[in-house]
Amino acid sequence: MTKDIISSGTCELYAPELAREELLKHSSLIVKKTGISELLFRSKLSELALVVHFVSIAEYKEELKHAGNALFSLSKDEQAELSKDIDFIALALKLNCIIWSMDKLLKKQRAVEIVTKAELSQKFS
Prior knowledge:
Elements: H1 2-8, E1 13-16, H2 17-25, H3 27-34, H4 38-51, E2 52-55, H5 64-69, H6 76-82, H7 86-95, E3 99-100, E4 114-115, H8 117-123
Parallel strand pairs: 1-2, 3-4
């Protein structure tokens, strides 16, 4: 179902460049856990870059403060946990778009709409 959504072309996908950098940073762990070769991993990452627009921080940096402010209504522990997602929130604010995530805690913030895979499928069916 995830592959169907990604390859359908019914929606445009964006992610902070930071996400691509994290995939590269942890490539050896990903390769080890999935059992694929480094070459296949690099190939899949290249394929992903064909359907996901990776956006540099320069394009959404002005929204980082607003994204951080969106977490103020949450507990300190929740804020700390969601700090890893601040770039995604800021990018969604910049693009005025939803975030596709299964993270229940991320749904607690109110700055941007968070949808699950099932909800996304319903929106585009």
